[in-house]
Amino acid sequence: MKERLYEILNEEKIHEIIPFLKELTEEERKTLVPTIKKMDREISKIIMTKNSYHTAGSANQHSIIDIASFVCMDQKNFGKNYWSLFRNIKQTEEILEWGCPNWFSNFINESIDAEFTAFNYQDILGWTEKGYVEPKPELWGHHLSNYPADLDHHPETLNTHFWYLCEYPSKSLPFRKEWFPIVQKLVTEQKIERKRFLRECLLASNRNFNKNVTGWFMDAFTALKPTDQELVDLQDELLAGLASVQSKASNTILTHLKKIVATPAFKSDEFSHYLPNLLSSEVKTVVISSLTLTEKIFQHKRLDPEMLGIALSTAFVSKDDGIQSKTAKIILKYIPVSESIKEALSHYADNILTNVRPSLVLYIEKEQPELEAISSEKLFLTTEENKLKELESFEDLMFFLPLAIDDPYSYHCDVALAGLVRFANEINAESVKLIEPVFLKACKTISKWEVPYLNVLLCNLIINYGLSLLEKYPMQLKNLEKIYQKTKEDEATREASSNYNKKLGPVEKVGVEGPAAKAFKEFAIYINHKVKRGDHIPLLFTITHSPCWISPVTLVERLEIYQNKNVQPDHLDFQLALQRCALDDTSEALQLAKEKLKGEYKELLLFFFDKNAKPTGKFEHPSWWMTAGITRSPQTVFKEFSHFGYDNIPTEFFTGAYSWKTIDNKKNSYYPVELSIAIPKYHLEKRKDPLFMEYFVADQKELSEIPALMWSFPNTPANALAKVIKYCLFYSGIAEVYERNLVLNTTKALYQIKKPLDEMGYLFLGTIFLDGDKTIRGTAAEIWLEHVSHQMIDNERLGKVIGLHEKLEWAPVKRLTDLMQNHMLNVSKNHNIALEKLITNILLQMEKPVTNLKKLLDVYHEILALNQSEADQNVKEKLNDWKENSSLKKICNLLLKK
């Protein structure tokens, strides 16, 4: 039986597969399943050629396996192959006639989750008539959405299935342009009930459809031009749609409600229940439309204004001047002063803008409560709160290694590596069994095509460690051999690819893609040798405090161990330890170094821990001294180091001071304004004492090492930030997911590092203040808030960066003003003073008025009022010029009066 199947496959006798399968019993078909799976793996192997690739099997062989799988397998084994088998519908029909699987109906019903199918609505109609499928409403709705044709051929299509389309549409419905005119035609011909369809369109607003599908139904509703009477009849559905999470639905419904607000049947009380949610929307058009409709209600209705008035107070959650001013006008015109209104407004009193506050003097307290100035406390990088717990046993190590595999860029990896060096040989016949699940996880991880390089190295270390234990404990770890052989087979398949880097085998033979990878590979080789030798002397580079810091006291203690054992540290291990050392409080470490260390260790750390000390000594290890100098004082050139031979490395990589500018690409419509930063080219050179830094600044091609770069150079992150700026922030409209994630992760890292910013830090922070991603901008605001709280930010430098960007409209000003209003305004007295200075320096860079400059001037006016100060004299000179612009005249005059 198996031999016959192999014969059909190898000789590509596709016409014989169905007769062969017909002859088999159900039990015989089941026994063929493992063979079919094996065949499928064999013909699915990728064959690489010089310019392309293909599978090992031919088209006929794949068809044979598809048919055999369908007939012999159950649904679980067959999987979700909604394409291959059904490309030949006639062939599929032939199979179904004599052997429709009992799971076929369920399989087809689940096809609504498939990205593509090779069958359509008409096929499902046919299968239903023949009893092969019992379709669910969701199936009809999904597949009819994708089949806007032949709607009159089956009576159920328009009578039933079309309404399922309204309730369970496909995500692709909006992209089937034929549906719009078809629906209009069917409504006109009365083949679809008009009022029912209008109702379904409104119900779509709260059916959790995506914004495209919801938008399609809203557009369909509007295109049918419902009459006022129809709108009145559908008023309950219209009002319910106001609770939609989609702003398109809310805006569409508000537009239609305005048409019937004057009719006696308009339900103003019911509308008031939805008003608070509408007015707290982040979408300005929804808020403005809601205010406009509310005003029309007051104009056309005789009602008790209190209910609407209380709901109206919610609008003050927004700090937009236009929204607050419009709300205040409605309140003054239509809502009498009462205790209830005062109470409602009191909840938003702190949020009401200073230029709006005087008009509401009868409704709120006259005096705005004064914000307190917060006392600044020094921020320490290493405290008990962020201290990491060390592993205490082999069992702890086995628990921690999977965490490190899941996130190799976190502190878990450092803790795990430190534990591996310390506990790798502290095992027995019982505890050694704990390695199996860790080994399996490492093999599964390394078997993936795309694996971060640190993960490759970590998993390789674990696998090699597991194989060494297998030699000592063959009985306890017999499963490791099977796991490893399967992983080797998978890699052998991938090695056919010309761009594949080896991951298994000795760590020395693991492939590398760039200089940064070489540095980490050296670490992996070093750690592997320590484990093999049973060398328990601690690694120097492993962090002691999250997210990436080494306590200076711990560094002294670790070096003392090396000194006492007369062992020289690895050159990269020592450099990385210096780079990660927290230098904010070194007094205790300085004293300990004087007492415990000798020779070069002592001289080096006395220089490193004392900001004012000059380097003295024999300089036996130039790379250590150079790293100490760059980490401690990146802007300082030490003449004592001039003979070290690092003169060929561009100074930008030492100082972090890159030249940059925002430029107007007048001829480039795709990138109209671009942030340009100059990063020198540098190729890694072979030298006796290479700097750890060299591996990361050489050959600026890959960005995958950026997370490691941030955690490896927390004292001097400029080189990492410059890379991200160059490749991910050159244009404010960049929307690729990879770049967005990289910028977000870099932003989070900068927030966690909690150090005063250098020049690239200010450029990065000022740029992400204007980023298109809301989460990135929010994290930027958090960095600013914390740095202001601890008095470690220069708002003049930050303002200059933002101003130089916005002078050329690198990004919409609204991103900046929304961030200021929602995150940075009125946090504390200190923050308000800092924000005033920030805006002042942004405005000082401006020349001609830019789009939405009025919004920034509104925020400036508000912060000056809160700080009881007046506009900077140099800004006033600009305001005198800008007031000639009609849209800026009012706000400029207000600022000039201050």
Automatic annotation (TrEMBL):
Signal peptide: none annotated. InterPro entries: DUF6493, DUF7824, DUF7825. Residues 383-650 form the DUF7824 domain. Residues 653-897 form the DUF7825 domain. It holds the Pfam family DUF7825. It comes from Chryseobacterium phosphatilyticum. This is Uncharacterized protein. Residues 2-285 form the DUF6493 domain.
